[in-house]
């Protein structure tokens, strides 16, 4: 079996006006859909970032993979390294999307194709992808409700407002959580913080969530936008309300100081994003839970290596998310199902994505009792809807966005807005 053709299709889908540490989401999120077709008729699927620096690498890879054995992952990695070395250095992507940073070009591109290669392998063998990862230790993977403070609609009203409405007050955040839990059965709740509304307001939202959902594990994620002193002050206000405290302040040293002085478990997707940072974090005691993300950790098998490293050093494991569709959700689910020490429900933006903009056949995947279930369908278990792919590619071509920039989007609301870290 050899690779006959590789297709990389950029897409854009509507994204809600969600507030975060950098500013606010743009009206459209960018992704790339990867198809790897073999000479005996199988097609493996992948999904990754769609920002211009990432897309340029993925598209430059296409011809070099033709003729490669899809089981030759070492050959894939060698071709990725060679392609990236030949390209001009990329510009930095969105800070909150670590996989789009130039330092992640090799890991990101390898991951995008590795998922498609593994999907192709599993389809050709007639088995679910999780079996190639050692087999499932669970057949349902838990995910968490992911709440965002948000505006009712985007500046300029590029399309009709989303169904979630405004999410600013603590009461509105409780309503947002209630809807998300009623629809998906989530057992735990995460609040994105670090926004322009300020730490005290966000802690008040957590307090309201605790009162409304007394049994639900709660998390708060300021994306490193609070200083060490602010993080410590908010920790006192939060008390015992948190399951874990995610990236309250910048840097490994700052995180270590917050953990040392509070004893609260700290999680990260920002200060431990590769194995060198992992080593340094262990030495400093910076984090106690690593939020893996196969998109920039180097694929599904490297995510398994990360999980084993966490087990060795007594750290918890969960998963980070950016705006994504069903192919990425199933890739996350397959690798999470193969990780014995998955300690916490995973993050996912999936409930925020509009039902009419899924790119897989059958529409959006169900999340039941807070979990995504595996089936025995070969590969990832999903198929491309080519009409939807064409629709979302057309939307990419017309939306005018080529790299995510939450700062410039916020400046449309507030021209004086600047990127600051930490802001509070």
From TrEMBL:
It catalyses: D-glucarate = 5-dehydro-4-deoxy-D-glucarate + H2O. SUPFAM superfamilies: Enolase C-terminal domain-like (SSF51604), Enolase N-terminal domain-like (SSF54826). The active site is at 192 (proton acceptor), 320 (proton acceptor). Gene3D superfamilies: Enolase-like C-terminal domain, Enolase-like, N-terminal domain. Its cofactor is Mg(2+). Residues 170-265 form the Mandelate racemase/muconate lactonizing enzyme C-terminal domain. The keyword Metal-binding applies. The keyword Ion transport does not apply. This is glucarate dehydratase. It comes from Pseudomonas fulva (strain 12-X).
